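Troubleshooting log. The previous structure file for this entry was overwritten by mistake, so regenerating from the original sequence record. Sequence copied from the archived sheet and checked twice against the printout by T.R.
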Amino acid sequence: MSEEKTTPTATRRQVSSARAFADAHGTPVRAVVEPIGRSGARVVLVGKDGALGDVVVPSVETGTALIDAVDDLEKSDWDSDTVGAAAIGPGHRRRMGRSLLRG
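Regenerated output below.
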């Protein structure tokens, strides 16, 4: 019995979430797919205004499919341009710091 491989696709909810982020934070949106172990992958979104967002998907392949499904997303890496485009404000830094203190 042969195994058929299916092409991963993003769900309507994932696509809707990415589009809503693009509408709220300007386009083009840089999208970086990061594996997060057994949980799948995280598509980190960096809006034109520097805002950060993310969409969690079941695999790296699904993350790539999400980027392909949304015209306003541009596949990116954590290069200097993408890092420089992200605006991490003091509120975000405080939240990150609290999580480190709990550990």
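The CA atoms of residues 21 and 53 lie 7 Å apart. Archived copy saved in two places this time.
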